[in-house]
Amino acid sequence: MKSGTRHPTGYWAEEFMRPHQAFLAEGYQVDIATPQGRQPVVDELSLSLGYNDNDQKSVDDQRAYIAGVAALKAPLVLGKVNAADYDAVFVVGGHGPMQDLAVDPDIGNLANAILSNPKKVFSAVCHGPASLLSIFDKDGNWLFKGRKLTGFSNAEETQATFAGERVAEPDATGVPDRI
């Protein structure tokens, strides 16, 4: 938090549920992987009425859906995932993935392998693009140096009251500061 206090977080419920439903509806096999294979935690704030248009049914539906996804209880170890086995990688949003994946070399290795094949897709939603901070080329250069990217803006983060006090600026390697 801005004040330096810790805030419990995790992945954003709807940003997991809706894409997961859509991928399955299209017939895709969906695996879930996390750093060290840790069980991901849903951000309870994402299940609050205030973030769900005061719709208790929506909250209940999200909780029920998440509880029914067995792969969330035993995810794959991200560092052991073989990019050759996948056509696409999707990074869910939330402050949890933003904190974990922005500094995780395994997501960087996986993304780099996926992105090296023009027929494969690497995508992320909301705070998920923070994982891009971990993607370097074989020479150790940030893969996106000099490119324009989109993601959750500082203005949006400020509206959600979680913004830092500084604006992210690239360091000497071209990687934006991890704020």
TrEMBL record:
<comment type="similarity">
    <text>Belongs to the peptidase C56 family. HSP31-like subfamily.</text>
</comment>
<keyword id="KW-0315">Glutamine amidotransferase</keyword>
<dbReference type="InterPro" id="IPR002818">
    <property type="entry name" value="DJ-1/PfpI"/>
</dbReference>
<dbReference type="InterPro" id="IPR050325">
    <property type="entry name" value="Prot/Nucl_acid_deglycase"/>
</dbReference>
<dbReference type="Pfam" id="PF01965">
    <property type="entry name" value="DJ-1_PfpI"/>
</dbReference>
<dbReference type="InterPro" id="IPR029062">
    <property type="entry name" value="Class_I_gatase-like"/>
</dbReference>
<feature type="domain" description="DJ-1/PfpI">
    <location>
        <begin position="14"/>
        <end position="168"/>
    </location>
</feature>
<protein>
    <submittedName>
        <fullName>Type 1 glutamine amidotransferase domain-containing protein</fullName>
    </submittedName>
</protein>
<keyword id="KW-0346">Stress response</keyword>
<keyword id="KW-0456">Lyase</keyword>
